[in-house]
Amino acid sequence: FYQQKKGVAQAKLCKVYPTLFTEDFAESNFMATSADPDKPFKTYVDMTKGILQMHERYIDAASKDAKDAEPLVEFCKTLDLPRYKAMIQKLEKD
Questions:
Q1: Cβ distance 2 to 53 under 8 Å?
Q2: Would you say 16 and 58 are in contact if contact means Cβ atoms under 8 Å apart?
Q3: pLDDT-based confidence at 13, cuts 50/70/90?
Q4: CA nearest 23: which of 59, 47, 55?
Q5: Burial class of residue 64, CB neighbours in 10 A (0-12, 13-18, 19+)
Q6: Alpha helices of the chain — where are they, by DSSP H?
Q7: Biggest distance spanned by C-alpha atoms of the chain
Q8: Residues 6 or more apart whose Cβ sits within 8 Å of residue 18
Q9: I want to staple 31 with a disulfide (CB 3.0 to 4.6 A). Which of 40, 49, 61, 74 is the partner?
Q10: Which residues contact 84 (CB under 8 A, 6 or more apart)?
Q11: Any idea what the Cα angle at residue 67 is, between residues 61 and 72, rounded to 5°?
Q12: Mean pLDDT for the chain overall
């Protein structure tokens, strides 16, 4: 949406699709290399923030897609490290 407003031709724009990041800590080859036990949580909070930035940049705020995503966007905006970590630990416990 941002690029459209700047006059970039539609043919030069990319499509943006939702992404779901998951990690099986027992099988992962990535986060286990950090000495910081909160590193996976920090990484996923940062990825969530990045996805929100892409959403705000590429999705027309007046579109049906944006309206449909409003509850999820608002929830994701509330996620900071303590809240995200508590949520994941509760899910793991349950």
A1: no
A2: yes
A3: confident
A4: 47
A5: exposed
A6: 2-5, 39-58, 64-77, 81-93
A7: 50
A8: none
A9: 40
A10: 41, 44, 45, 48
A11: 105
A12: 83
- List of residues 6+ apart from 81 with CB closer than 8 A: 38, 41, 42, 45
Residues recorded for the chain? 94
Flag whether pLDDT at 32 surpasses 60: no
DSSP code of residue 15 = P
pLDDT bin (cut points 50, 70, 90) of residue 25 is low
Token pair for 24: 């099986």
Q: What is the pLDDT of residue 68?
A: 95
Average pLDDT on 31-55 reads: 84
